[in-house]
Design goal:
about 30% helix, 7 strands, single chain, alpha+beta, Immunoglobulin-like, about 30% strand
Length: about 150
């Protein structure tokens, strides 16, 4: 089956080639992990956790539901109240981005047409996130990550 016996140098070459492949794959994976890391969600998670319950209760009291879609180059955000009526927030901002990398991050400027908010974006097919921050008329801060699937 083998044309020549496996000698010491041949065995060392085969054995070391396995380690070379494993090390090369680890280097590529480490580079990709660091290169595509979008950053921290919050600088101090302990401080953020201290007001979490109060903020959550205030958001739930608003009763808002958020839906997002991309249509003809515009990110369309529909915010509705408990009764399904459109909500015009005092302000709406956010970051439209891919979930795994910060290269495509965009901060659209929104206009309200009486029913939905529209902001111009550049998007390709796949999953996107819209990390929104809205302020209600009473000053309540509403923040949510909305998953947007683009065909």
């Amino acid at each position: 089956m083998f044309s020549a016996p496996i000698t010491g140098p041949k065995f060392f070459a085969i054995f070391s080639s396995f380690f070379i492949v494993i090390i090369a794959v680890n280097i590529v994976m480490a580079y990709e992990a660091v290169h595509t890391f979008p950053g921290l969600e919050t600088a101090d998670s302990y401080s953020a956790s201290q007001t979490f319950d109060q903020e959550r209760a205030a958001q739930l009291a608003l009763g808002w539901t958020v839906k997002a879609d991309v249509h003809e180059g515009h990110l369309v955000i529909a915010i509705t109240d408990r009764n399904g009526n459109p909500v015009e927030a005092k302000s709406l901002t956010g970051i439209f981005s891919r979930p795994t990398e910060a290269v495509d991050d965009q901060t659209p400027v929104f206009t309200f047409d009486g029913k939905v908010y529209r902001g111009e974006v550049r998007s390709g097919p796949g999953q996107w996130n819209f990390r929104m921050v809205a302020t209600a008329a009473d000053g309540t801060r509403f923040h949510q990550r909305v998953v947007v699937l683009v065909d």
